[in-house]
Every structure is written in C-alpha cells, then in structure tokens.
Specification:
The chain has helices at 31-39, 92-104, 114-121, 127-138, 142-152, 155-179, 187-208, 213-219, 233-241, 284-299, 352-367, 379-397, 401-419, 425-432, and strands at 9-12, 21-27, 49-56, 61-72, 83-89, 108-109, 221-226, 259-265, 268-274, 302-308, 321-325, 335-336, 339-343. It is α/β, with parallel strands linked by helices. The protein folds into three domains: 9-124, Probable tRNA modification gtpase trme, domain 1 (Gyrase A, domain 2, 2-Layer Sandwich), CATH 3.30.1360; 132-210 and 376-420, Four Helix Bundle (Hemerythrin (Met), subunit A) (Up-down Bundle); 222-367, 3-Layer(aba) Sandwich (Rossmann fold). It has a seven-stranded mixed beta sheet, sandwiched between helices. Strands 3-4-5-2-1-6 form a six-stranded mixed beta sheet, with helices on one face. Helix 7 runs antiparallel to helix 12 and helix 12 (379-397) packs antiparallel against helix 13. Residues 8-124 form the GTP-binding protein TrmE N-terminal domain. Belongs to the TRAFAC class TrmE-Era-EngA-EngB-Septin-like GTPase superfamily. TrmE GTPase family. Keywords: Cytoplasm, GTP-binding, Hydrolase, Magnesium, Metal-binding, Nucleotide-binding, Potassium, tRNA processing.
Length: 439
C-alpha cells in the first residue's frame, strides 16, 4: 500500500454486522467540500449535528439518510487532516447509497490501516502508538486491553524517546571531546559519558529480559495438559471449557491427537491443549499422538502434569503444575520429586477451585511486569532495543572519540526506527496492512 495523502478516503468504521448505527469515516483535503455538497453548511467543529444527507444538497436531490454529522478540521483530528463522520442508520441500502455518493463526490474507499497510517505520517502518533491502536482493536481479554491501551497512549514510546533524549545528551558531550581536543576538558566528562552509557545499557538489558511477557499477553499463552492414559486430562479440559469439548472414556488411549480450547485465566488469553496419554504403545496412531504430546510440552508456556491416585510419576516436567486426580477414592502424596501436588477429584469437584487459583497465579507470573517499565509487545521492539544496546556496547570498547561518537549515533538511529522517526519506510506497508479497514 503506498501512502496517498492527497486523496480523500472513506470507510465504514463500525463494521458490517447488523446494528442500529453505522459510522462512516472520511478524511482528506476534499472533506469540507464533500460534506458541504452532501449536507449544506458545515456543522460546528467537533459538535454533533442532525442533518439530512443529500445526493446533492444544493438541489436537495435524493435524500440518502438523516444522520448525526461531526466535522473535524485538521490538524485536530485523528489523521491530522480535515475529516468528518456520518452516524447513519445501519441499513445495508443506506450504507451502499452513502458510499456511492462519496465516490461520486471524489472520495475513494480506504485501504486497510490507511487512517492510522495517515495519523502516523502527519505526526499525530508514532509507530509504536499506531501498533498499540491495532492491538487495541484486536484485544479480546482484559490484559490485552490494558496493555494495548497503555501502548496506544504512549507508555512504551515514552521509554524509548526518554532513552533517545539521554543518549542525545551523551552524544553532545562526546562531540565536545571530538571538537575541542585541545581544551583540556576535565576527566570527569569522559567518566560521565561512560557512566551514562553503562546506565542506559543496564536499563535496556533489563527491558529485554522480560521473558516475552508482553508478547504472551498479546498472543496468548499455551497450557498443555499431559499425563498417562486415564489420568483425567480430557475431564480437566472439559471443566476448564465448561462444556463437553473432549470425549471422556474409561478406555485407555481414547485421545489420539491434541485438542485445543481457548479460555482466560486472570484476564489472560490461554489455549488449553489436551494431549494423548503418555505411555509405550505398539499402536502407530497412538504413538504419533504421544510424539505430538511431547512436542506440545516443549512449546507450552506451562505444563499441567496429571496423574491418578496410586500412580505418581517418576519425574516431573520443569515448571509443571502437578495435579493428582481421583482424590475421592484414595490419598494423594503432598509432593512428588520436590514438586507440590494439587489434589483434585474431577468426579466430585474436590480441589478444583484451588487448582483454578494455582493456574491463575501461574498465568499472572508468566505475564506480570516486575517493574514499572512497559513490556515488549513485538519482536520488532526487542530487535530494535538489542541493536541499540549492541551499539552502546561497542561504544564502550572504543578509545577513539570519533569511533565512539559514531556508535552512539547508530544507537540513536536504532531507537528512532522503533518509533518511526528514521528509516522505517520499508516497514509501513507490512505494519499497516495488518489493520482493519476503517482504522
């Protein structure tokens, strides 16, 4: 998608589902003319007005709808351009007629992400804030909503721009050493430069060591349920799903393939995976199911390892939540291989609230920030911070002021690429192409 800010664009921003109101968004240099041609005199800026919409207001030819109209003159608009919104009755015929009228007056349908791309191009938001807008539109859980809203509001951008401002000051001192080598600047200047670089590196390293918590919130986590046949794995999946998602049978080996359901824990999106029972088998299909179960263990953010009463496992997977089932028919050990056992009975419901609390605590531990710094939400952000940090590490190794200054400038460029200030043109199509139409 190429940037075409000279065009006036429109899109249905409220979606295509049946509803009472449909919001048509328009932005571009011809917005004032088009709105005037459709409803006559422009309403007051940023105040809703009830107006008839005409195919041509000057001749009052063919009423299209009676709608709420909002006029947003630039630069105080979402895109920074002149724009307006039409809050229409949401009948498909009305939407088609208004769309046809907008085209007839010179507007064109917007491409995916084009409104937000124009907001970025016009300085209304930086690239990280724009990505936060996309995440906010896609948010399904409370944790996703909170993280995306903070990013769209500039929380992550402020971290990176703060680093860039501090780096600019360090570079200014470094340039002074380069430009005035004969001025006998005090040694404290050199010490201060190295100290400031070291402090920035420490903060960047800490930021990168978030254990992919932000990405887990954005994409969701995977909890794999594993254990021997007839341990109660499918029954646990059904309890988590609150429906009969998996077949439950006393016949060992009923589950041959992985079965997934999506839920939430502590406001975090979690995909629960029921896997084939772990055992040695000559059945080729069941053996493939066991292989896939072990694959899911390696990929999972958390393993729920189950065993029935009387059959504790010989070993426990690293970091697993160990669940002993059938507590209603016998005693379960308090721990196995140093791992605490959560005793439950999926038949009577015994221990299930406690298990749910343990799983919520695990979900929070895997996603909660240990500091006030916002979490990384995309691999692109992590790569940019790593590039900046690598430049700072090379700067610390340089004895020549000119070489150190060049590494500091490269570090600033890496931070600038994150927010979109420099060198991101090749990224724009990929980023904004993931947006929905109308945003």
């Amino acid at each position: 998608m190429g940037y075409q800010g000279e065009d006036t664009i429109f899109a249905l921003s409220s979606g295509v589902e049946r509803a009472a109101i449909a919001v048509m968004r328009v932005s571009g240099p011809d917005s004032a003319r088009i709105l005037g041609q459709m409803c006559g005199a422009l309403p007051k800026a940023r105040q809703a007005a009830l107006r008839k919409l005409w195919q041509n207001a000057s001749t009052q030819d063919s009423v299209l709808d009676e709608a709420l109209v909002l006029w947003f003159p630039g630069p105080r608009s979402y895109t920074g351009e002149d724009g307006f919104e039409l809050h229409l009755h949401a009948g498909p015929a009305i939407i088609r007629a208004v769309s046809a009228a907008l085209v007839a007056h010179g507007a064109r349908p917007a491409e995916a992400g084009e409104f937000t791309r124009r907001a970025f191009q016009n300085g209304r938001m930086d690239l990280i804030e724009a990505e936060g807008v996309a995440d906010l539109v896609a948010a399904e859980t409370e944790s996703q909503r909170r993280q995306a809203l903070a990013q769209a509001d500039g929380a992550l951008s402020r971290v990176y721009t703060g680093w860039a401002e501090r780096l600019k000051q360090v570079l200014a001192w470094q340039e002074a050493l380069i430009d005035f080598p004969d001025e006998d600047l005090p040694p404290e200047v050199e010490d201060g430069i190295r100290s400031d670089i070291a402090a920035l590196m420490d903060e960047m390293h800490h930021h990168m060591q978030d254990g992919q918590k932000g990405e887990r919130i954005r994409h969701g986590m995977v909890f794999a349920i594993i254990g021997p046949p007839n341990a109660g794995k499918s029954s646990l999946l059904n309890w988590l799903a609150q429906r009969d998602a998996a077949i439950v049978s006393p016949v060992a080996g009923t589950t041959r393939d992985a079965l997934e359901i999506v839920g939430t824990l502590a406001g975090v999106r979690v995909t629960f995976v029921d896997t084939a029972g772990l055992r040695d088998t000559d059945d080729a299909i069941e053996a493939e199911g066991v292989r896939r179960a072990l694959f899911h263990v390696k990929q999972a953010d958390c393993v729920i390892q189950m065993f029935p009463v009387g059959s504790p496992p010989d070993s426990v997977f690293d970091g697993a939540v160990l669940v002993g089932n059938k507590a209603d028919v016998g005693a379960l050990p308090a721990s196995v291989a140093g791992c605490d056992v959560v005793p439950v009975s999926l038949l009577t419901g015994q221990g299930l609230p406690a298990l749910h609390a343990v799983l919520e605590q695990r979900a929070l531990a895997l996603t909660a920030s240990s500091s006030g710094v916002p979490l990384l939400t995309r691999a692109r952000h992590g790569a940019g911070v790593r590039d900046a940090c690598a430049c700072l590490e090379r700067a610390m190794q340089q004895d020549w002021p000119e070489l150190r200054g060049e590494e500091l400038r490269l570090a600033m460029r890496a931070l600038g690429r994150l927010t979109g200030q420099v060198g991101v043109e090749e990224l724009l199509d990929a980023i904004f192409g993931q947006f929905c139409i109308g945003k």
